[in-house]
């Protein structure tokens, strides 16, 4: 997993089409030429319609005016299978995790874990759509300072189902293994009892080669999990053990002799 320094975080996706397997961590920047500096910025390249892929990244602990984690300006990236956690937007809008601006913006946000992000003004600490739209599915949106603003999600785990209803949505503790140490195993990964397992969109078909945040197949148990982490395959049923005794012709079981 690559690490990005603060000076590397502003990228024009007219040149860079994909960012993958990066650790984008603790980037704290203020305004640069009047434009918020963000963990990742997807921006148009002179009017070109852009569809970059942002996948399998850990975007954690970044601060910007709007879009502490990711900012989309007249861009329609595919944002999938990322951990976007504990980022902050300090500007007058929001989008601690993801900020969307521009009439041509239409990011697809699928299979992400978006948690613990904040906005100084309290609106859209998770995902904030100021202009344009966003398609949000199969994502954990948990305990952000307001998960969604001016957008909706489907087949996602949201903090408040009354505030953020949507087809297939649930509101239940995702049961993360641990959320304290990014470098340690289990960071924002699903415990075996997570309600997010096998709870994503049943019609979702991963792209060829698409993986979860840990590089594992995106679907392992027949249906996508909600969030960036796909639970391991369910263990095969244990081989049938010999019953206590053997069955006779009439189906009766005769006890084994003790000894």
Your description of this structure?
There is one protein chain. This protein is mainly beta and 259 residues long. It has a domain at 1-173. It has strands spanning 2-3, 18-20, 22-25, 31-32, 35-36, 40-43, 53-55, 58-60, 63-64, 70-73, 78-80, 83-85, 88-89, 98-101, 108-110, 113-115, 118-119, 127-129, 135-137, 140-142, 148-149, 153-154, 157-158, 246-247, 253-254. The protein has a seven-stranded parallel beta sheet with strand order 1-3-8-12-16-20-23, with no helix packed on it. The model is unreliable at 1-18, 22-37 and 242-259 (pLDDT under 50).
Main sheet: strand order: 1-3-8-12-16-20-23
Distance between the termini: 58 Å
> Which descriptor suits the 3D outline?
globular
Number of strands: 25
SSE ordering: EEEEEEEEEEEEEEEEEEEEEEEEE
Short synopsis of the structure:
It contains no helices and 25 strands. With 259 residues, the protein is mostly beta strands.
Task: Give me some keywords for this one.
259 residues; mainly beta; 6-stranded parallel beta sheet; 25 strands; 26% strand; disordered N terminus; disordered C terminus
